[in-house]
Amino acid sequence: MEAELVARATVAASSLGRDLELQVDDVVVVQNSNKLALRVLPCNVLARTAVAGEEVAAFEIVVTQHLGALSAPIARPDPRVEPLVYERDGFAVTFWTFYDSVTDAISSVKYADALHRLHGAMQRVEVEVPHFTERVAEAERLVMKRSETPELGAADRALLLDTLRVGVSVRPLSPAATRLKDVECSDEVVRYGEPHTGHPMVSRQRRY
Question: What does pTM read for this prediction?
Answer without folding.
Answer: 0.69
